[in-house]
Each structure stands twice: as structure tokens, then as C-alpha cells.
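Ticket #4471: structure export looks truncated?
Reporter: QA, pipeline team
Priority: medium

Steps to reproduce: submit the single chain below to the structure queue and open the exported record.
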Amino acid sequence: MDIFEISKKILHEGPVCDNCLGRQFAKLSTGLSNRERGQALKLALVLEGDRIYKTEDDDSLLKELALCSIFARKALGIGGEDEQCWVCLDQFKRLDEWADEATKALEGLEFSTFLVGTKVSGLLSENEEILWAEIGTAYAEQLKTELNREVGKRIAERIKKDVDFENPDITITLDLAKNKLELQVRSVYILGRYRKLVRGIPQTRWPCRKCKGKGCKNCDFTGKQYQESVDEFIKGPVVEAFLATDTAFHGSGREDIDALMLGSGRPFIVEAKSPKRRSTDLEALMRNINEKAAGKVEVRELAFTEKNQIETLKSSKADKTYKLKVTFKEPVSEEKLKSSLEALNGAEIFQQTPRRVVHRRADLVRKRRVHSIKLEKLTDEGYAYITVSCEGGLYVKELISGDEGRTNPSLSGLLGIPVLVEDLDVINVDI
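Actual output as written to the record:
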């Protein structure tokens, strides 16, 4: 079927705007807009209709061309009133309206790039499907593709910003069914390391176990199981710096609530959600966090990063070094302790998921390696200070206690007496 035949079939269905007619041939003659394609086709149909009218005697052909010519003439403004396009319901008359609304919505936001997307209504989708069922889609593009492009061009002219198809700072969505515009602002991501200098603080926010965050007597109506967290110490200054709605915290593993995080600190990424600002002085942000954390949490080495680094951070098996203070159920000699520690040095450890976390992790046996383990000091009071360097994912408390036989080998099992970790400090995360 040639282009004229396709165009006639389209016009037989009813009035069609230049954009919707031209869009059916979007893959032909690059360098033209769909509107220009549609205008050219309508003009050609008008001229062809007039030619046949003056030279042909075939009544059926004359009737068919006359009908197409009437629609084409109306669309070109040659006699008669301009009628609503049955395909797009005159969406292309609203391009400047959408662009103006988007420009106003973007005021006060810091960004460099944007992208326009469109949610079409069920009726518009149905109209397009009816048309394509009639003429095919060999040369056509979707309605929403053209709307995205045409509104995007107008917005770019108004705000002097670039369109980015891969990773825009802001996505502008035209919801045609609801007749409203929505903005989705890409998060800002900050990579850093934190040190936790006091015990009793979790890494992330914990909703109250009893009320699930709603607020009750148990949590003093705060909705929190713990009133402070590393996450929240960082959240406030980040929200303030980027004028964000909230933050999300992504850590490279986590230490126990009663453990310190010392040394160079644990890597983390904080995500500033829906930020109105995208840039800030990270040195000033670091100072602000450290001042407000009041010696409980300290951050360092802040740097901008991208979302894809979260997966890298979480999936990496970082080696860790711990300093432990352990106690023994019965007195133990330094010689026997050193001998047992030597048996763990470089050993492969088989750990069934510890009882204390089995409610939230699959009950499996995992293999992890101890790189080195060393006795630093054995006190007269019976405390031992031990340094352990091991593969990420090893539960160090259970390496010491044995967890009732769920971890093998263990210090408790090698000594033949119960051994418990009284204090645990993470002193290095190697990533």
C-alpha cells in the first residue's frame, strides 16, 4: 500500500491533525517534523483530489477523493471549521500549555538535565490501536514518543537545560488521563565512611517492635525502638544541605548495636531523596554531621557517587578486623589459649546461621575463613583481648562462643569451656 492509499484510509476514519497523520510516516524522510509531514500529505491530497475532479469520470473514485479532500481541506484551514482530531483528541494543541506548566513546576529546583515522559489514557491508546489495526505500523511512531519530544523541545527552549535520555536529574511525566504533571527528582548519592564511637546505637532506623512505628507507650510515642542511629545522625544535615524530603542509608554490612566501629570506619552511601539542591560543600556537610553527632558518630571521606555504587557496596565481601574482649567460664592458661587460637589461625569456619539472627536469615551452613587471630593480652582478672582478621560475613561472636555447636571450629569448642564476647569493636573494614 502506497503513502497516498494509507493517508486516504486514515482520513476516511475522520478528522486527523497534521501531527497524527505525519506520525504514521515518522520513519520516512528524516529531517521533517511529523507536523510538516502531515501538512504536506494533506496538501498533496487536496491537489490530487482537484486534479481527478477535473480530469476523471469515475464516480466512485471522485466520491472517495472528495471525502478525503474535504477532511484535508478542513485540516489545512481551507473552508469549514477545524474539527477535533479523533486520534489524539487535540493533544498537540496543548504543547505550549504543558511546557509552561512544567517550567513553573521546575522553579526553585537545582538541576542540569531533564527528560519528559507521557502516560497516555486508555482512550488514546485505543484510538492508536484502532488506527494501526487499519493501516499497520511500518513507518509509525507512538503518540507518547512524539509528545515527549515536542514538549521536551519547548521546555528546553524555556529553561535552557539539556535533555538526558540515560540519567536525567529530573523526569517530567505528563499524565494525560489525570490531566496533571508529575516531577520525579533523581536522588543525590554521597559515599563516605562512618565511625561509631559509643555502644547501644544501631546503624539504621528501627521502628518500635510493638507499634511498628506508629507510636505507643513502649517507645514513648516516638515510633522508634532506639532513639538514635547512625542513619539519623547523618540524615538531618543531609536533608538540610540538599533540601531533600528524606534520606536512605546503605551500609557495607553492619556491626552489632553493642559494637563500636573504629579505625578507618565502615563505608556507606547516603541517598538524599527528591533534593531541591544537587550540590553542596561536602567538607562543610561533614563538619555539620560530626558536630551534631556530638562524639557519638563521626563521618569522613565524603564524596559524590552514583546509584550503581550501592549494589557494589552491598555485594562486596569486605575483609574485617575486630578487637574482642572475651571472658571464660573457667580459668584458662595463656599457653592453652594461645594453642587454641593458633588452631583457628587461617582456618576455614563452618557456620550455621546463628540463633540470634536465624529469624531474619535463611538457616544455612556458610563457609568463612579466619585470616589471622592473635592474643593481645590476658589479664589477671581473666579477661582476654583478642584481634581477629577474617573474611566478610563471618559471625565473630559465634567464632568465640561456638553458638552451641552451630559454629565449627570455635574457641569455646577448642578450649572445652564456655567463652563469651563481652565487648566487640570493628577496627577495620577493608574495601
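Status: closed, not a bug. The export was complete when the record was re-opened. Leaving a note from the reviewer for reference: The mean pLDDT is 90.
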